[in-house]
Amino acid sequence: MSSKNRLERQAFRPLLSRRAVLQRCSTGFGAVALSGILAQQHARANDLPANAALKKLHHPAKAKHVIFCFMSGGVSHVDSFDPKPRLELDHGKPMPFPVERTQFNNNGSIMASPFKFTPSGQSGIPVSSMFPHIARVVDELAVIRSMTSPVNEHAQGNFFVHTGFPVMGYPSAGAWASYGLGTEDQDLPGYIVLQSGSAVPPHGGVSLFSNGFLPAQNQGSIIQVDRAEPIRNIKPADLDAIQRRRLGLMKSLDKNFLEATGNDQQVDAAIENFETAFRMQSVVPELCDISDESAATQTLYGIDSPDKEKAAFGRQCLVARKLIERGVRFIELSCLTKNIGAGGAANPWDQHGDLKNGHGAMGFQVDQPIAALIEDLRNRGLLNETLIVWAGEFGRTPFSQGSDGRDHNPYGFSVWMAGGGVRGGTIYGATDDLGYFAVEKKCTIYDMWATVLHLLGINHEALTYRYGGRDFRLTDVHGNVIGEVIQ
Amino acid sequence: MKPLLLMRLVWLLAFAGWVNVSVNGQDTDQGVEFFETNIRPLLVEHCYRCHNSVDLSEGSLVLDTKAGTLKGGDNGSIIEPGNVEKSRLIAILKHEVPGLEMPEDAKKLSDKEIANFEKWISLGAPDPRIEPPSMESIQALRSWDTVLEQRKKEAWAFQPIRSPTVPEVTDPRWAATPIDRFAFSKMQEKGLKPVERAENSILVRRLFFVLIGLPPTSAEVKKWSQEIETKEGYDRLVNDLLNRPQFGERWARHWMDWTRYADSHGSEGDPGIENGWYYRDYLIRALNADVSYPQLVREHVAGDLLAEPRINRELGINESLIGTAHWRMVFHGFSPTDALDEKVRFIDDQINTFSKAFLGLTLSCARCHHHKFDPISQEDYYATFGVLASCRPARHAIDVDAGEADRRQAMLQLKQNIRGELAARWLADIQIASTAGAAEIEKWADIKDPTDVRFPLANIWRRVRDGEAFEVAWKDECHKHEMHRTAVEKYATEEGVQYLKFSNPATVNHWYFEGKGLQNKVSPAGEFAIAAEGDSLLTGIYPSGVYSHLLSSKDPARLTSEDLLLTDKYQVWMRLQGDGTSQTRYAVQDYPRNGVVFPTAAIGPKWHWQKFDVAYWKGDEIHLELATGKDAPLLVNSSNRSWFGITETLILPADRPGPPEPLFQQTGFYRFAVEKMPKSLEDVWSAYWQGIAVSVERWRDQQCDDMDAYWLAAALENKQLFNSLAADEKLSDLIRQYRALEESLRVPTRVPGLDETVGRDNELYIRGNHKQLGAKVPRRFLQAIDAKPYATEQSGRMQLADELLRPENPLTYRVFVNRIWHHLFGRGIVLTTDNFGKLGSLPSDPELLDYLASDFRDRKAGSLKELIRDLVSTEVWKLSTRPSEESRVKDPENDYLSHANLRRIEAEAIRDSLLSVSGLLQGEMYGPPIDGNTPRRSVYMRVQRNALDPFLRAFDFPEPFSCTGRRDITNVPAQSLAFMNDRAVTQWANTWASQVLGDPAYADDASRIKEMFQTVTGRLPSSEEVSQLQHFLRDTEEEQKKLLSLMNAKRERIRELQSEIAAVVDPAREKLIQTMTAEAGKSDKTSAELTPVSRWEFKGSLNDSIGGLPLTLHEGARLEGDHLVVGPQGYAVSAPLKQELKAKTLEAWVQLDNLDQQGGGVLSVQTQDGGVFDAIVIGEQQRQHWLPGSNGFERTKSLGGYDENDAVREIVHVAISYHPDGRIVGFRNGKPYGNAYQSNGPMTFRASETVVGLGVRHLPAQGNRLLNGKIYRAQLYDRALSAEEVEASYRGFPAAVTMENILASLGEAERNRAITSQQELEALRKDLSQFNDVAEDLSPESAWGELAQALFSLKEFIFIQ
Question: Is the Cβ pair A266, B971 closer than 8 Å?
Answer without folding.
Answer: yes
